[in-house]
Design brief:
Elements lengths: L2 H22 L3 H21 L3 H25 L12
Helix pairs in contact: 1-2, 2-3
Length: 88
C-alpha cells in the first residue's frame, strides 16, 4: 500500500469520526468546530488528489467564510427558555 492510499484512508476515517461528532453533539458551538475540522480534512484529501486549487478554495470559502458565518449566527441569536419569554 502506498503512502498516498494510507493517508487517504486516515483522512477519510477522521472525516467520518468528525462527521459523527457533529451529528451526536449536543452543543452547537462544538458541532461547528467539528464541521470546520471536516472542511480542513476534506482539503487534505484534495491535496492528495493533486487538486491544490480546490484545497485552497475549500479552506478560504468553507473554513474561512461559511464556518465563521454560522458561528456568528449562533453567537448573535438570542436564547430563550422553552415555554418562557425571558432571555437566558
Amino acid at each position: 500500500m502506498s503512502v498516498e492510499v494510507a493517508v487517504f484512508w486516515l483522512l477519510a476515517t477522521l472525516i467520518l469520526f468528525a462527521a459523527w461528532a457533529i451529528v451526536i453533539g449536543t452543543d452547537i458551538v462544538r458541532s461547528i468546530v467539528w464541521l470546520t475540522i471536516v472542511f480542513l480534512l476534506t482539503s487534505g484529501i484534495f491535496i492528495i488528489a493533486d487538486a491544490e486549487f480546490l484545497a485552497i478554495i475549500q479552506v478560504l470559502v468553507y473554513v474561512g467564510a461559511v464556518s465563521v458565518v454560522i458561528l456568528f449566527g449562533v453567537m448573535l441569536t438570542r436564547r430563550t427558555l422553552r415555554g418562557s419569554t425571558e432571555d437566558v
